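Supplementary Text 2. Reproducibility record for the structural model of the 439-residue chain.

All settings were left at their defaults, and a single model was retained for analysis rather than an ensemble. We include the record here because the model underlies the residue-level annotations in Supplementary Table 4.
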Amino acid sequence: MTRKIVTALGLAAVAAQAGTAVMAENRIDTQLPGAPELAAYGNLPIGVRQIDLVNPNQIDILAIDPDAPKPETWPRYDRPLTVEMWYPAAEGATGDTGLRAYLRDATTEVTLQGRAHRDAQIATPQKPYPLVLISHGYPGNRFLLSHLAENIASKGYVVASIDHTDSTYRTKAAFGSTLVNRPLDQLFVLGVMAEMAEGEFSGLYDVNNTGLIGYSMGGYGALITAGGGVTEASVGFGWGGPHGTLDIHRAGSDTHNALPDPRIKTAVAFGPWGMNTGFWDAEGLAGVQVPMLFIAGSQDDVSLYENGIRAIWEGVSNVERALLTYANGGHNSGAPMPAPKEAFRFDEALGGSVSDHYTDAVWDTARMNNIAQHFVTAWLDVKLKDDADAAEFLSLVEDSNAGFWSVNDDGTEKEDHSYWKGFAKGTAKGLMYEVKAPE
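Retained model, structure tokens:
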């Protein structure tokens, strides 16, 4: 069935004419007119399934009282993690295309509509697909970046999006758990996916060719997993990891030096957190070992921009890195899915609309999503698939507004054409794309 995106006004008109109530859909697969070329879905059918995991014998951060004496031994527990896996499915895939997810208020459960079929039979590729891990913000959940997960899955990636315990809307707890556990969760899931690649998912994906995508605190975790170490000062923050539990991620520590996993080849960080609060410095950021794409809004008031995300991008000095900036965009630039219709209401506990967690004051969310899908596709295709053609979409004049449209009558580009590749005339506006080589 052909899916149509209908405006609220048009929907109301249809309902009135039909004399029946029509329910709007919370779509995560919107492709707006003018979406850049690589935002388009691929040709592969998509499946999605839930995987429930337990990471045994982990430090129980919530059981450590920061105001009590330091315990002689750390309390331990078995840490539950839920993963949603999007993947290329076998031809003729069938199954429910709805996703049940909780909103930021932690009480409202909604249905998201996409293109992935629940529990569809997996594809049998001639060559295993790259694996991509997704790590949400604080708080968030495994569906927050679902628009991106199923989009890239349709192009030949297997995507594992993690519900980080103590960081989801319904399990949100002491921040120290997020600080300590984020990279550990990411690497544990990678390890389990490696085990499953030897069994149930044999031949589907290659864990030795993995990308990592993180948003906000997921971006913080991605930096650590990629080799960045936190500062000594941050280990001692009273509101952080209790009693120095964050020391395992301190730059130069034996534990952190042993952390980076060579199976991870690249990382993408949306609005990564921590520079503005003293978690990063030049020494720690220089430890990042894989090329990184950073995506930010120039008016981010959570992670900050000039003294936050941009400073991180500049500090990751030993690898190739790029920075995509949405002019005047906030912390939600590119990563969160469009706000479900049920989110447009005031919540007393949050002190504002639930939709604020997803929306931006300037940019349309679906527009930001399409741009992010385009650039993440190009970046991953280059880094994980060695696609030389995709690299052309990343060879750009820095300021999109400065791109010059100059084509012949037959559509071929003239020598002075400098418009951003993949963007239709008049659509590459309000963006910056900057690249730095290893220093």
